[in-house]
Amino acid sequence: MTPRPAATPSTKPAPGRSTLAAGLVGVLVLPLLGAADPARAGLPGPAAPTRDAAIACTDAPIGFASVNAVGQSGTTGGAGGPTITVTTAAALEDYVGRAGPYIIRVSGRIQVDDMLTVVANKSILGVGTSAEITGGGLQLGSTTRPGNNVIIRNIRFTGAGDDSISVTNKAHHVWIDHNDLSDGYDGLLDIKRESDFVTVSWNRFHNHSKSSLVGHSDTYTADVGKLRVTYHHNFFDGTDQRHPRVRFADPVHVFNNYYRNNALYGIASTENAGLMVEGNYFENVAHPIYVGYDESGPGRVVERNNLYVNSGTPQTAGTVVEPRTFYPYTVDAPASVPGSVSGGVGVGKVCA
């Protein structure tokens, strides 16, 4: 890849709130499909209703999931494939693991026992406000079946026995949007093992310690040059740490997120990772940004135009690749973040 120019710390304020920047690559359509024809599609089981306002949207991710790269034009998920509705763990496991594109609508509460492997070209979309996956989680891809071009939206994840969502095994072009994640065992959302071009947006993380890890371990150097992730408009609501904790990646772009009452720290950049942190609102966070953490070596952080309310002083170091060299974006005024983010995150608000 052609080398990108580095960004340096800036005291200039970020742009104010405006409409979505023009020029996003690809438009994702979560279509208003009529009932699928199981016989024609070769599918057993129920078909989707004619429309659902909660997921019938025309929009696209901002950030790394929008970038044309690795032979993929943005992130489209299961667009163009059959639409089906699942209500059981068996059906969910079946369809997320099938080859080819599918738009999979999750209806109601589904109890799973383990991590379900999601393979390429899937949209996994909660119906209404009651879609829930509990007891287990979703793993994007295996070592032999990639989990590329996947969208997960409008689902509540609770009580996972491992991670709630694991983006792993070289998965690329993933959009995780408007979910509610809580009360798991390990990480609520981990991105690792050479995964790339991921956007995490408008999610609420709560009732948990370890929110989101980027990078498998201090010794997994295969992650160098990968793990490009955008976090925007997420609510880290009382979670202790990893919002995110990052190894090796450059850049990880963290903008317009709301941090509240995070007991250990907000963000940690380690093992020479490069983080651009801008337009965020930290409230009651004693250590908003660390450079290096625990036994991990230091990373790099550029921070600009963040607000620190009853919070400590952020650590910064070095220079970082400028996200704007990859994609356009607009940063909201950080003072507006608590209201817009707390009111807009989570399930049932996809079209808000």
Automatic annotation (TrEMBL):
UniProt record similarity statement: Belongs to the polysaccharide lyase 1 family.
- Where are its TM segments located? none
**UniProt KW keywords:** Carbohydrate metabolism, Lyase, Polysaccharide degradation, Secreted
Name any one Pfam family assigned in the record.
Pectate_lyase_4
- UniProt main location, coarse: secreted
GO molecular function list: pectate lyase activity
- Descriptive protein name: Pectate lyase
Kindly give the InterPro entries that the UniProt entry links to this protein: PbH1, Pec_lyase, Pectin_lyas_fold, Pectin_lyase_fold/virulence, PEL
Location in or out of the cell: Secreted
Note whether Secreted occurs among the keywords.
yes
Q: Which SUPFAM superfamilies does the UniProt entry name for this protein?
A: Pectin lyase-like
| EC category name | lyase
Q: Ranges for the Pectate lyase domain?
A: 79-288
Q: What does the entry give for GO biological process? A: polysaccharide catabolic process
Question: What organism does the record attribute this protein to?
Answer: Plantactinospora soyae
Give yes or no: UniProt keyword Acetylation: no
Under which EC number(s) is this enzyme classified?
4.2.2.2
What GO cellular component term, any one, is given? extracellular region
